[in-house]
Amino acid sequence: MDGNDNQTLPQYPSQPMEMEAELDVAALRANLRTDGRKKEEMRELRLEKDSTYRADGSSTVSHGNTLVMTSIYGPKQCSVSNVEYSELANITVKITYMEEKENNDLMNMNYVVQKLLENVIKRSLFPRSEICVYVQVVCDDGSLLSAILNSVALALDDSGLPITEKFASVCLMLSVDNEILPDPCLYEEEHSNNGVVTIVYSEKGGILTYFAFGDLEGDTLQKLTGTGRDLSKRIFYLLNHQLLSFRVYCHILLSTPQLPMVNRTVIGSFAVIGAAAIAYRLYNINEFKKYSAKKFKAEQEAKQKAEYQKFLAERREKRLNFCTRLLKYCACFLAGYLWGVGESELHRMQVEDGAVSTD
Fold it and tell me: Per its UniProt record, what InterPro entries does this chain match (predicted)?
């Protein structure tokens, strides 16, 4: 090659690269949902126990922007007269919005939560008592019933009430392309034409109940329940490990390479001590609640026995009063009868002696 030949490097136009980048962004956006999540991704789930001081059990649960607070009071002496002598505890559920607004689904959600609790709580242990569940919706951004049910499950665990099995809820939706979208936001629910379903699972994977609306056929519903069962395992893990976020935070600190080994050791020690202290406190709280439940049961049994003894004493007193009055009536009747017989005999004797005229 001659050195005089002018050789120039090839210049590639930047337009194709820009077009390719735009295509990649468009493809990426096409695979995302309206709030930026992937199609199979759930929103961040936050759980907090014992969020209300005066309640026997309370929780605060958020699915993304959907925020729900639940408080449980009871069991306590029943205040409704028509269920005072019921052998099963009466459960009342009230769901309200922080900002007053009309919502026709509130009655349906009340019914679903109440029926679920009636089947899960061991109501026979608390006769002639009531359990009140108050749910306050702070913010509704979709999957509301699922958030309510998970909040109730966490508050129920905090209350220490005996239950047959734990439960967790998952909300699923079918997209326009018949793809399963977990934990839909409010915008997705409002623009869904294929249907939305909220499923309640037991810890063993069984379906306790579900609430659906839209056109959901048998095969589609079966596919939704299978996907929801896998997602419910994650929720159960969070419900059973309330210190999850604390442990994750400590794990991030311990795995940060910028921190010296001494600092990581100190942080690890404090993390272990803090986790042990919190676990000990939770253990004491659960033991106290179990003791309170046993004490309440013993008090109820003692109260029932005292009421029965009082009933027997009142019945014995009534019978004694009845017998006393009956004896008085018999004595009066016998005295009147004897007086009449004596008068008749005296009159007969006077007639025989001629002292009294028979005319």
Answer: ExoRNase_PH_dom1 (IPR001247), ExoRNase_PH_dom2_sf (IPR036345), PNPase/RNase_PH_dom_sf (IPR027408), Ribosomal_Su5_D2-typ_SF (IPR020568), RNase_PH (IPR050080)
